[in-house]
């Protein structure tokens, strides 16, 4: 008996020791946004299930990009998991900087990830990052102002309708701008918006031989339309407005329409922050009848850098954070409107989530985006609001600065397009594409 | 002979000085005020100045989300350590340049200063790789050494300027009395240069406290100081201005308080030797 008990105690001790040895502390680099911060609050649930502790490094997204790029390209191993976007995932995957996310458990149900997200986060069919949440862009509009203007927003409006509605809703005396759009320089700010707008006008960044296309009439049409629309119905100083500035204007009731990230829907319908929470409607991003809408596709996703020593624990965390169970955990604690959207098919099949006002339009917007076929004419690249090549961020930042100078009245559309054409071709030539 | 200044002129000078002071201080004041607003009040247009419902909610959210004391301790360690280490190296260096100059002293001084003109990002990768090899990534010691090296030219230059104001004859007299080099620096030179050393110390502490390039790029979770704490509340997608302001206020509060109490010393040191 004594022998049995001592053997049992020995086994317990070994089990305890092996659990202690297996328990790791993983470091996760992430961006500062509502969904990511919410996830940090639920870390205890992960620790309780796996025994692993988590340390968070939260940074502004551009700082994070620079910080993680330095670490990952030198295999510094500072982070066991990093938050990356749809732009980085295929490029870094191709460079061998990320651990492939194969061998995920059956319970995780990798096939449940929305196809657009899965393809955008893969390279050569291998998934390199799991989407935590995904987004497209859509029209958010004031139902009361639309009604006052005597118009009805279609589910899939055209740019001409947007222009007409914006003019009708603009009330300068009461500081109401018909439409608020991004004009701020930066490839992820105004650069992203004008790129998807141009896509809907039939423009493209490059032809099949990587020649810049800013000298084509489609770009001139798109940019002229944008400038005229914003001059007629946009807020003053829109050249410096990005997501946050427009969110602030919309929440204060100073925009008739706002075309931006679908994730903003939960902000503008939140009565704690928005003065117009109960007067917001949604529609697909506009088009010009050419077959492409002005909407993008983006995901914030979790990936494992190649330099980590804690790959198994990191994989466990990714499975937990991007699982169906995590969504249910958030829904149970904070309601369905607050779960991370745009990542899983099952979420949009859930009747509880279908009752969220912006759920359907978010899914429709995501489904309307095709990163492999983003433009009317054929292109040699993948990506809708970006071109998935390493050089793009630098080139697009410069191009968007030229466009912002147009919005600020510092140069003409023709001048900006000519500069964009020259600088893009120069950069592509230097990079060996041409 | 001192120039006569009329009362009107004095009042005008005072008003101008106060105006300039307020303009310089306004961004800090605005940050502090915003930290007591709700996110909706923080972005309201027209902006609210003083008459709003003051709230401590942002501070409680920041406190709950981040381990402020860890960031603070890292800042104190890194800023304090790099300043003290810098002074230990710079005092003898500045002494030799001020009192035993060679033909190359001026060139050396200029060369030291020229390293400050190099964009930091230009040496990011070499230093990052060195840190990986030496196991110094995300360590307070590593960051202390880097910030000391970065600020060393300024420390040497400042001390050199102060030491040049001290008559060499006093040191000679000490030597005549049999003082060793160590005693000469420790017991003769240093006490006479205390205002200058104090202001060098304070200025470099502030520089190290505010340094945001290396402290963000060479740290992760363990050694991150208050600059990383602030950066964690900045976001291009989501309104966090009030929380960002609360985090900024908490980050600058220690250095503001320190500056307030030591302003006399700081001003005295910075004007050391300006009036003969």
TrEMBL record, chain B:
GO terms for biological process: transmembrane transport. PROSITE patterns: ABC_TM1 (PS50928). The keyword Ribosomal protein does not apply. The chain crosses the membrane at residues 12-33, 71-96, 108-129, 141-163, 184-209, 240-261. Pfam families: BPD_transp_1. Signal peptide: none annotated. Keywords: Cell membrane, Membrane, Transmembrane, Transmembrane helix, Transport. Residues 72-262 form the ABC transmembrane type-1 domain. Belongs to the binding-protein-dependent transport system permease family. This is Carbohydrate ABC transporter permease. It comes from Roseobacter insulae.
């Amino acid at each position: 008996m004594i022998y049995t008990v001592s053997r049992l105690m020995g086994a317990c001790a070994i089990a305890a020791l092996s659990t202690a040895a297996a328990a790791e502390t993983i470091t996760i680099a992430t961006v500062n946004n509502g969904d990511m911060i919410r996830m940090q609050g639920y870390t205890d649930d992960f620790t309780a299930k796996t025994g692993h502790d988590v340390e968070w490094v939260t940074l502004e997204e551009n700082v994070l990009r620079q910080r993680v790029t330095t670490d990952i390209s030198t295999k510094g191993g500072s982070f066991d998991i990093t938050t990356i976007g749809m732009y980085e995932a295929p490029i870094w995957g191709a460079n061998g900087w990320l651990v492939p996310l194969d061998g995920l458990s059956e319970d995780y149900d990798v096939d449940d990830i929305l196809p657009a997200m899965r393809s955008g986060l893969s390279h050569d069919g291998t998934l390199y990052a799991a989407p935590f949440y995904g987004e497209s862009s859509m029209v958010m509009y004031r139902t009361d102002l639309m009604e006052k203007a005597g118009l009805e927003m279609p589910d899939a409006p055209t740019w001409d309708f947007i222009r007409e509605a914006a003019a009708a809703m603009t009330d300068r005396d009461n500081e109401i701008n018909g439409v608020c759009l991004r004009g701020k320089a930066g490839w992820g700010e105004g650069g992203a918006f004008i790129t998807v707008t141009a896509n809907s006008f039939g423009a493209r960044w490059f032809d099949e031989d990587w020649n810049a296309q800013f000298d084509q009439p489609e770009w001139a049409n798109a940019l002229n339309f944008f400038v005229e629309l914003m001059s007629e119905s946009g807020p003053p100083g829109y050249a410096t407005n990005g997501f946050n500035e427009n969110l602030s204007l919309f929440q204060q009731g100073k925009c008739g329409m706002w075309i931006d990230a679908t994730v903003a829907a939960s902000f503008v319908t939140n009565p704690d922050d928005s003065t117009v929470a109960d007067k917001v409607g949604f529609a697909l991003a506009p088009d010009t009848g050419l077959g492409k809408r002005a909407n993008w596709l983006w995901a914030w996703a979790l990936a494992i850098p190649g330099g980590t020593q804690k790959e198994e624990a990191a994989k466990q965390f990714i499975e937990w954070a991007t699982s169906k169970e995590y969504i249910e955990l958030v829904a149970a604690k904070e309601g369905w409107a607050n779960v991370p959207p745009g990542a899983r098919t099952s979420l949009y099949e859930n009747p509880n989530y279908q009752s969220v006002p912006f759920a359907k339009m978010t899914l429709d917007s995501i489904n309307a985006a095709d990163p492999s076929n983003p433009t009317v004419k054929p292109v040699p690249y993948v990506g809708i609001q970006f071109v998935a090549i390493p050089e793009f961020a630098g080139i697009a930042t410069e191009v968007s600065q030229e466009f912002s100078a147009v919005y600020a009245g510092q140069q003409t559309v023709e001048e900006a397009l000519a500069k964009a054409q020259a600088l893009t071709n120069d950069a592509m030539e230097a990079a060996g594409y041409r | 002979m001192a120039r006569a200044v009329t009362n009107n002129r004095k009042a005008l000078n005072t008003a101008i000085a106060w105006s300039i002071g307020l303009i310089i201080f306004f961004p800090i004041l605005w940050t502090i005020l915003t930290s007591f607003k709700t996110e909706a009040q923080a972005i309201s247009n027209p902006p609210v100045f003083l008459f709003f419902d003051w709230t401590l909610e942002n501070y409680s959210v920041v406190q709950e989300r981040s381990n402020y004391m860890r960031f603070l301790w890292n800042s104190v360690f890194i800023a304090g350590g790099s300043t003290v280490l810098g002074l230990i190296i710079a005092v003898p260096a500045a002494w030799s340049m001020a009192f035993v100059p060679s033909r190359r002293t001026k060139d050396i001084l200029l060369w030291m200063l020229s390293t400050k003109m190099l964009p930091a990002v230009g040496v990011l990768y070499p230093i990052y790789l060195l840190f990986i090899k030496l196991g110094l990534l995300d360590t307070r010691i590593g960051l202390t050494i880097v910030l000391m090296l970065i600020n060393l030219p300024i420390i040497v230059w400042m001390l050199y300027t102060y030491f040049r104001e001290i008559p060499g004859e006093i040191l000679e007299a000490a030597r005549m009395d049999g003082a060793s080099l160590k005693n000469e620096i420790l017991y003769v030179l240093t006490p006479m240069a205390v205002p200058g050393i104090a202001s060098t110390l304070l200025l470099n502490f502030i520089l190290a406290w505010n340094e945001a390039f290396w402290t963000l790029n060479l740290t992760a979770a363990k050694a991150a100081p208050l600059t990383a704490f602030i950066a964690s509340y900045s976001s291009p997608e989501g309104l966090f201005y009030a929380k960002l302001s609360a985090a900024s206020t908490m980050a600058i509060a220690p250095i503001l308080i320190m500056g307030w109490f030591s302003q006399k010393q700081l001003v005295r040191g910075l004007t050391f030797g300006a009036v003969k």
